[in-house]
Design goal:
171 residues, mainly alpha, Lysozyme, two-stranded antiparallel ribbon, 8 helices, 2 strands, 60% helix, globular
Length: 171
């Protein structure tokens, strides 16, 4: 428990000083990420990194992404701390029924952690960069090699910071 409290404290300090868009609710959301990471047995540095990149831990974050796939415009809206689409949220957390539910950090973070666990279990030999890219773009898009190099680099930069903080807390 001391280790998790130390990670929370260091993460909060890191976020407020180095990330200008961090939410005032970051502490609450970080606690939820740590709680569900423990519950589903995944390294909390993975969802912490994703939340940093996706929303800066903002509960009300919204993104409308329009892509052209096979000459059709496809609109994907992502919501909340972990930037989930409604389809993904519903699939991994049946408590999510509407877009409004995606702004509930408890539901959003739980669904995201389950999604990350699913990706890690299904793609055991994939790198963390690949897992993060699948999370960001979806498995089908990733499998089409339609991945963002910028996202991968950003993920690895933040992830290395979180991993370093975690290893320092064990000393």
């Amino acid at each position: 428990m001391k280790k998790l409290n130390y990670i929370l404290m260091i993460t909060t300090i890191f976020l407020f000083f180095l990330c200008p868009n961090v939410s005032a609710n970051a502490n609450f959301n970080i606690n939820l990420i740590i709680k569900y990471s423990k519950m589903y047995n995944i390294d909390p540095s993975i969802p912490l990194t994703i939340a940093t990149i996706e929303s800066g831990f903002r509960t009300n974050a919204f993104n409308k992404n329009v892509k052209k796939i096979h000459k059709k415009k496809i609109s994907r809206e992502s919501h909340g701390v972990m930037q989930l689409t409604l389809i993904t949220g519903r699939f991994f957390n049946p408590a999510i029924k509407t877009k409004k539910d995606l702004y509930d950090p408890e539901k959003n973070i739980k669904a995201s952690i389950i999604f990350i666990k699913y990706l890690l279990d299904k793609h055991k030999n994939a790198s963390l960069e690949d897992i993060a890219s699948m999370y960001n773009s979806g498995e089908k898009e990733f499998n089409r090699k339609n991945i963002s190099i910028t996202y991968r680099r950003e993920f690895m930069a933040y992830h290395s910071i979180y991993k370093q903080m975690a290893s320092n807390s064990m000393k």
